[in-house]
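Entry: Nucleoside permease NupC
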Amino acid sequence: MNLPSILSQRNVCLSVLLLFISFTAQAVLPSSSNTVIQEITTNNISISNVTEPNVTFESIYRGLIGIAFLLGIGFAFSANRRKIDWRLVIIGISLQIIFATLFLLVEEVAAVFQWIAEKVVEFLAVAEEGAQFVFGNLVDPSQSMGYIFAFKVLPTIVFFSAFTSLLYYLGILQKIVYVFAWVMSKTMRLSGAESLAAAANIFIGQTEAPLVVKPYLDKMTKSEILCLMVGGMATIAGGVLAAFIEFLGGTDPIAKAEFARHLITASIMSAPAAIVMAKMLFPETDTDKIDRKLDISKEKIGSNVLDAISRGTTDGLKLAVNVGAMLLVFTAIIAVVNWFLGGDLIGAPSGLNDLIVDATDGRYQKFSMQYILGNLFAPNCMDYRCACCRYCSRRSIIR
């Protein structure tokens, strides 16, 4: 089956749009020469001394607008609007709300989830011994030149990939995947392949998840394959999840546990969300070909335990190198664009830099991508309008 034929030109445009929106989320924070970890350490920022935001009508209203907007995009770019299963859409959104309520608001379930998050953090701390053996004091920020991403975060990806392969070889991961797949299959009336793939993507990467549904691949419909791919993009793989916990939590175990709880919750909630978007973009039309049996592939990664760990290590190494290389290149590209916008070509001679500093009270130091995209997509755009008004007024006075 030719996979590129699955997506129409409209869906390709949608993918580019969603990629752009997700990128802007990284640009909301003001530019700074310090890393996130350095700022947390310098300003003594900790999850323990940050109060939880109150749930207000405004926040709920904003969330409903976001859901409606994304559903509108899915409907506008749908390959067959008449075939959209609105029951599936409603149940998918309801599952997200149920998961969020259980994991964050129900005390008993939230306590269990918090315990799991704390154990994940403890597990990652024990796993650092391998990195310390190889890199020595470079792994410890207090004994080296500070928090070094390459030595602190990337080894976590390698280890977690190897450990995930071990769990898959032992059959433990398949049992966990089956539970989530059963829930989504019964509630959303999905095929067995879609349910298993969506559940597997919660815990493993999108390159390993298809192994779970290998018996189905040859007979999967276009809608099922798109659901498989979208699910891989929507959730967080185990190795990357561990990297996020290390990077965002820094050296604070309380912060790590809190980030772990929220990231795991977000990954689980993203599974039904991905199904909703995939089924809106490419609704199922070949209902006669759907196989609703939940049959996990018995194929194992590796011929024995050591082989499984070795294969997972190799895959994790490739992923870690790719993550490091992508961060290196795209961070440099953003810096080049900021140099062009805020340097001697635009920001300095036009006076925009000074206006932006005044309008934002020093939050932004110059005209940059962070300033443009942050003000365009942030809820409060007063800084942007204020700077524009001041700029136009000053230009009028000069003239």
